């Protein structure tokens, strides 16, 4: 009951009335909670940054970024040192208010990298660091022309989440530390540079770009992409960047982005970031999307040609409120970002495409969650995690996303959608540009929602959801009528009741096809599998979600005709969500791991370090 005792101490400080504005929990109040970030060397209560002026040069030949990071410090007249995070960055020199100053780089921690400790006279306002990155910097993926879509020019993109920003910028790399930034980035002539900031829409002939991010963000949202990039507008505030050969298809695929933005604002308040643009990256990008402010990074695997996978865009857009606006204080609180975002994503999709559609997404999410919970150690199935001494990527599982979603859905169903929407809108507005611990959220939840009808608290049992393992018994039940029809169709076909031509599938979405493939019976013969493939072309489908599920099933069944396509898919696509089950299936099919290793040898150079680390561990 630790949360209840902590919450009671705040009840006098936080508004309880339904008709009153909820009072924020101040920095002083949060100090009673455990806010030490175990994944950062930064001592944020002693000295912290508030603004960055970045001046860097991008060198494709050397595969390095070099330049200067000048940090403006928050006021703290007694501070005489500050801790930054590094990982493989070479420090050339450091200045305090223009004067050379003493600095040291500490020993390497296997998870956190190294601390850079800068000493300075009291009252110092700015620390300027000259540095150069390593060619192996984990956040940076340098792609040769053959690894891009158009195969004409090299490409660079960053992936800073969770703690990789420290591999390309010396920074206080903690989600609990926010700052604004300006940047000047010099790239080879003819290439475009984009950041998580205000962005150009045309190539600068000199290759010099300037950026501004006036809203404070944490380091994991620092982002840079450089390449042969073009832009297309999709609405008053939305547009898409891509390689020229991908631009038309990308603009078509994401044409509803402006509608999504309007639907999101109707739910939980005004969009706070100016523009919302997308960039479609080369296929080695390790995630579906990354919610970098003003410029979401997107995998090309969602460009299916039929706008069927755009719930991912709704998800990344929702992060503009949950995550980017109100941010998890540490990576132990990751669910505070992702659980809220999945909930918000499905509300956007329901608003645009109806309840039947969003319930299909929720059903697929529940399937993923059950599988994840079965595979993970119990302690990793809590919403509040303890990742000390571990890579925070270990917490980037369906538990944070889907268990978090179902907890919030339970609150909605228990207290009513209208009351829950009011709570959530107030939560985003009153905590905008601030960070959130699990404990602080639970205190706000107690006083601003649970207390409105305390007789319902026992039916929710928030303690079990947040601090307990697995899925509680009161997890909301999801019912998808469209999936029920898929189940009936699949059973009738599997039982031989009718042929393919008699199957009513003309109006099926990609989600229905994914559900169909996921539920193919284990008893199917290879002959029937071949007939199924011949009729529906699963092995060669352009829908990556359906194809990945089919290829995984095919490997498990030993369906040899799909093996070449699986190898091609693994070499071409770097999205970790797809790689992990496919390599697992290969290992199960051949426990010597020889087949998997042979494919991985070809594929590994195309993967970002995030994916490499995961697959390296599987195949060691």
The first-to-last residue Cα distance is 42 Å
Please state the CA-atom Rg, rounded to the nearest Å: 25 Å
How many strands appear in the DSSP assignment? 21
The helical percent reads: 25-40%
Description:
There is one protein chain. The protein is of the alpha+beta class and 620 residues long. It has three domains: 2-38 and 321-467, Neutral Protease Domain 2 (Neutral Protease, domain 2); 49-228, tricorn interacting facor f3 domain (Immunoglobulin-like), CATH 2.60.40.1730; 520-619, Alpha Horseshoe (Serine Threonine Protein Phosphatase 5, Tetratricopeptide repeat), CATH 1.25.40. It is 37% helix and 18% strand. The protein is built from 20 helices and 21 strands. The chain has a seven-stranded mixed beta sheet, with no helix packed on it. Strands 15-16-17-19-18 form a five-stranded mixed beta sheet. A hairpin with a 4-residue loop joins strand 1 and strand 2 (64-73). Helix 8 packs across helix 9. The radius of gyration is 25 Å and the shape is globular. It starts with a helix and ends with a helix. Residues 1-34 have low confidence and may be disordered.
């Amino acid at each position: 009951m630790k949360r209840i005792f902590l919450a009671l101490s705040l009840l006098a400080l936080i508004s309880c009335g339904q008709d009153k504005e909820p009072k924020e929990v101040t920095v002083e109040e949060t100090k009673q909670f455990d806010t030490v970030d175990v994944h950062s060397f930064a001592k944020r209560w002693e000295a912290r940054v508030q603004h960055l002026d970045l001046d860097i040069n991008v060198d494709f030949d050397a595969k390095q970024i070099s330049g200067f990071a000048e940090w403006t410090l928050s006021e703290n007249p007694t501070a005489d040192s500050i801790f930054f995070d590094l990982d493989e960055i070479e420090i050339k020199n450091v200045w305090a208010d223009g004067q050379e100053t003493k600095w040291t780089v500490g020993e390497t921690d296997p998870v956190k990298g190294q601390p850079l400790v800068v000493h300075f006279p009291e009252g110092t306002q700015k620390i300027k660091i000259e540095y150069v990155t390593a060619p192996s910097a984990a956040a940076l993926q340098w792609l040769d022309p053959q690894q891009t879509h158009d195969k004409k020019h090299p490409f660079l993109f960053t992936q800073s989440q969770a703690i990789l920003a420290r591999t390309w910028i010396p920074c206080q790399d903690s989600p609990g530390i926010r700052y604004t930034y300006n940047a000047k980035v010099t790239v080879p002539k003819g290439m475009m540079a984009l950041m998580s900031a205000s962005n150009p829409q045309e190539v600068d002939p000199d290759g010099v770009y300037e950026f501004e991010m006036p809203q404070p963000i944490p380091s994991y949202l620092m982002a840079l992409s450089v390449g042969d990039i073009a832009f297309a507008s999709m609405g008053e505030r939305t547009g898409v960047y891509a390689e020229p050969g991908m631009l038309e298809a990308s603009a078509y695929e994401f044409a509803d982005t402006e509608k999504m933005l309007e639907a999101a604002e109707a739910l939980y308040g005004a969009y706070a970031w100016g523009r919302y643009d997308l960039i479609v990256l080369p296929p080695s990008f390790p995630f579906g999307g990354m919610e970098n402010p003003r410029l979401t990074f997107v995998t090309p695997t969602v460009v299916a040609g039929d706008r069927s996978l755009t719930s991912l865009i709704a998800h990344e857009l929702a992060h503009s409120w949950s995550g980017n606006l109100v941010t998890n204080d540490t990576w132990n609180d990751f669910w505070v970002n992702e659980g809220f975002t999945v909930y918000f994503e499905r509300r956007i999709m329901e608003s645009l495409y109806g309840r039947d559609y969003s319930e299909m997404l929720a059903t697929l999410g529940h399937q993923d969650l059950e599988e994840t919970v079965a595979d993970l150690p119990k302690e990793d199935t809590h919403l509040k995690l303890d990742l000390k001494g571990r890579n925070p990527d270990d917490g980037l599982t369906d538990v944070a996303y889907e268990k978090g979603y179902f907890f919030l859905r339970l609150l909605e169903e228990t207290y009513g959608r209208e009351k829950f929407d009011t709570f959530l809108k107030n939560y985003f507005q009153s905590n905008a540009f601030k960070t959130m611990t699990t404990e602080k959220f639970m205190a706000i939840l107690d006083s601003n929602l649970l207390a409105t009808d305390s007789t319902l608290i026992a039916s929710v049992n928030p303690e079990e959801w947040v601090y307990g393992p697995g899925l509680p018994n009161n997890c909301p039940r999801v019912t998808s009528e469209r999936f029920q029809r898929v189940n009936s169709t699949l059973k009738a076909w599997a039982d031989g009741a009718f042929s393919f031509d008699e199957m009513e599938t003309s109006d099926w979405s990609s989600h229905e096809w994914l559900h169909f493939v996921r539920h193919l019976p284990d008893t199917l013969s290879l002959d029937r599998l071949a007939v199924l493939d011949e009729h529906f072309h699963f092995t060669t489908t352009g829908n990556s979600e359906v194809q990945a599920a089919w290829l995984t099933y095919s490997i498990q069944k030993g369906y040899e005709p799909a093996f070449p396509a699986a190898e091609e898919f693994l070499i071409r696509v770097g999205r970790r969500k797809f790689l992990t089950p496919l390599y697992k299936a290969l290992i199960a099919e051949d426990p010597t791991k020889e087949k998997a290793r042979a494919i991985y040898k070809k594929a590994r150079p195309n993967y970002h370090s995030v994916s490499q680390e995961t697959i390296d561990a599987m195949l060691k």
